[in-house]
Design goal:
heterodimer; A: about 180 residues; mainly alpha; 2 domains; about 0% strand; B: about 180 residues; about 75% helix; globular
């Protein structure tokens, strides 16, 4: 298996930079998996473990997963190389986009284009909300928590920390009770 | 200097609270960046979010654009500080978790926490809809465009940036 069991920090950074710079609209997890397994940086079970941790902890999944793989390959320096690889290309690209934005946003054609794009992003967000809610449909309590959270944030403007503490806490409590009940059965 | 400290504090808090890949932080980010500090207006916020979805990498990279706008005399510094604050704290948690990993290996807590937090994150995504809508065009043509995107997203495999670009073309034609 280990084709490159101890990769250089440069190759870790470059691998993730390439993935980050070409990750248009998802599919990054599959390409990370392919690359790190082929290079023997990590085995398949470890990768799945990392994917789970990357999704539980805060932060972008792509960034967390890259850090996990980099750290398994080369310890903390490997994690830092992965961090640099994932963050720098998107940062550079978004800066160029920002410079163009401030230069041209008042041009009527650009302005119209941006407004159209914004309508598209709004549609994607709504689609995402529908899709994620569909995933929760099996439990009435989950659906109620979804609705209660949305109302608390949008109508009562409850800040993020108390929202996560109250509604996230309630969700965790109910999952815990459910898991305990299952283990008693 | 004061703005830099505010950028650091706002985005590092969002970073640490960015569960579910950061999908849930949009309403709070809008409150901080638009209502509290007035770094950008609602239309800019929505357009920056849109650019974040359009460029490769994590969507939350659009924090850079808010930092850019917040510090007009030193835009690159503002962008760098906002991005570092957005990405570094959660990454440090990820790096630090490595030493706890053995203790939590195969622990039921991981599934309990991620499934338990999910409904609150989904609720926050719902709240992102009116937040983003505040800065999106409000005309029949725009709403139809958004609705078509919802259908295309749920029914086809066209990827997100491509859908946004197609809407950009519609916008050039109809939303000037």
């Amino acid at each position: 298996m280990p084709a490159e069991a101890r990769p250089s920090l440069g190759s870790i950074a470059l691998t993730f930079a390439t993935i980050a710079a070409t990750s248009f609209g998802g599919g990054q997890k599959a390409s990370i998996r392919r690359q790190v397994l082929a290079r023997g940086w990590i085995d398949s079970d470890r990768f799945l473990e990392g994917l789970e941790i990357a999704q539980v902890l805060p932060g972008p999944n792509l960034l967390n997963l890259a850090i996990y793989c980099g750290q398994k390959a080369r310890g903390v320096p490997g994690a830092l190389a992965a961090f640099a690889g994932v963050s720098i290309p998107p940062f550079a690209i978004v800066l160029v986009a920002g410079a163009l934005y401030f230069k041209f946003a008042s041009n009527p054609f650009v302005h119209g284009g941006l407004r159209g794009c914004a309508a598209g992003a709004l549609g994607l967000t709504l689609g995402n909300a529908l899709e994620l809610t569909w995933d929760e449909r099996k439990s009435w309590l989950s659906v109620a928590l979804v609705a209660a959270t949305a109302l608390a944030v949008s109508l009562l403007h409850v800040p993020l920390l108390p929202v996560l503490a109250i509604f996230g806490g309630a969700g965790i409590l109910s999952e815990w009770l459910r898991a305990r009940k299952r283990s008693e059965d | 200097m004061e703005t830099l400290i505010h950028l650091l504090s706002v985005f590092s808090q969002l970073s640490i609270l960015g569960f579910g890949g950061g999908k849930g932080i949009i309403p709070q980010m809008h409150t901080d960046a638009v209502t509290t500090y007035r770094w950008v207006n609602s239309e800019q916020f929505t357009q920056f979010y849109t650019i974040g979805k359009l460029v490769p990498g994590p969507t939350t990279i659009f924090a850079a654009l808010i930092g850019y706008a917040a510090l007009p005399q030193r835009p690159l510094l503002g962008a760098a500080v906002a991005t570092a604050a957005m990405f570094v704290p959660s990454s440090l948690i990820m790096i630090g978790f490595d030493s706890l990993e053995e203790r939590f290996a195969a622990s039921p807590w991981r599934a309990i926490v991620s499934r338990g937090l999910a409904p609150a994150i989904v609720g926050l995504v719902w709240s992102s809809v009116p937040t983003i809508a505040r800065g999106a065009p409000s005309s029949v043509a725009a709403y139809v465009t958004s609705a078509v995107v919802v259908i295309l997203m749920l029914r086809t495999k066209i990827n997100a940036p491509l859908l946004i670009l197609l809407c950009g073309a519609v916008g050039i034609a109809l939303l000037r």
